[in-house]
Design goal:
One of its GO terms (biological process) is sulfation. The chain contains 14 helices and 6 strands. The chain is an alpha/beta fold. It has one domain: Rossmann fold (3-Layer(aba) Sandwich). A hairpin with a 2-residue loop joins β1 and β2. α11 packs across α12.
Length: 300
């Protein structure tokens, strides 16, 4: 599959049903999401931006090929697990839901859509939804760093991007405190698996890979599982041209010099960027917006 990525490939930010979308999301694709016909073996890898999407994409992609690395290490991850609410970058210029309509099964798709904007079929139980959440302090820092690195994403100073993030009307891909709790409320749905970035990073990566495999109905040998885990560590993905956009030639003209898409992948790195005042603001919003929500995160 050839990929054509140019400044014209991306639309400017836009609003849809109260949610602000950033490049490379495409309005036509977002409009088609609701009516997209979901198959039983479809898999949606969902997350708020910069919350572990690429990580789970890699795990799901490897599990879908029974741990076969030959294709996974050659084909870019955005081709193996395309971003659902974008336009096709193979040259057609068509919205992805239209292209994916006739794609062979199993269809693996990434999305940053809030739960309420997912396809109606998925919300009614068809397909599989794997959601990965990350603590909000690391998210806001990582989102700013990515905006600094990609030319096609509008960016301001860290303080400006922080203010935008905590504004429900300006936050990219929805207000974090609306989006994450909404997915959490569906964590017990039969077709939803809710994961945390911090658990993947600091707890038991292998155990979580097995959990994802079980959820997808995939049975792999212990050896194959070990191979999947070895190729899904942060260091392995950072060194892999097929998962690290900093190395992918398709994005060469769209990234700034020295940009690292896979930067640190640490829990608690927010301490190097957030001021004490900004950290307190996030604590205060958390206290208000997460009251009554039995979801907690590790921040360091």
């Amino acid at each position: 599959m050839s990929v054509n990525i140019s400044p014209e490939s991306f639309s400017p930010p836009f609003h849809f049903k109260g949610v602000r979308f950033f490049p490379a999301a495409d309005l036509r694709a977002v409009e088609l999401a609701e009516s997209f016909e979901v198959r039983d073996d479809d898999v949606f890898v969902s997350a708020y931006a910069k919350s572990g999407t690429t990580w789970v994409q890699q795990i799901v992609s490897l599990l879908s090929t029974e741990g076969d690395l030959s294709e996974v290490n050659k084909v870019p991850i955005f081709v193996r697990v395309p971003w659902f609410e974008t336009m096709d970058m193979s040259g057609t210029g068509e919205p992805l839901p239209k292209i994916l309509k006739d794609a062979p099964s199993p269809r693996l798709m990434k999305t940053h859509l809030p739960y309420r904007l997912l396809p109606k079929d998925a919300r009614e139980g068809k397909g599989k939804i794997i959601y990965c959440a990350r603590n909000v302090k690391d998210v806001v820092v990582s989102w700013h760093k990515m905006r600094e690195g990609f030319k096609f994403i509008p960016s301001g100073t860290f303080d400006e991007n922080f203010e935008e993030f905590i504004n429900p009307e300006q936050a990219a891909f929805g207000f974090w405190w609306d989006v994450v709790p909404e997915y959490w409320r569906h964590k017990d749905d039969n077709n939803v698996l809710f994961l945390k970035f911090e658990d993947l990073k600091r707890e038991d990566l292998r155990g979580n890979v097995v959990k994802i495999a079980d959820f997808l109905g995939r049975t792999l040998s212990d050896q194959r599982i070990d191979e999947v885990v070895a190729n899904c560590t942060f260091s392995a993905m950072k060194d892999n041209d097929a998962t690290n956009f900093s190395r992918d030639e398709a994005f060469k003209d769209q990234r700034k010099d020295g940009f690292e898409f896979m930067r640190k992948g640490k829990v608690g790195d927010w301490k190097n960027s957030l001021s004490p005042e900004q950290s307190k603001i996030l604590d205060d919003i958390n206290r208000e917006k997460m009251a009554g929500v039995d979801l907690s995160f590790e921040f360091e």
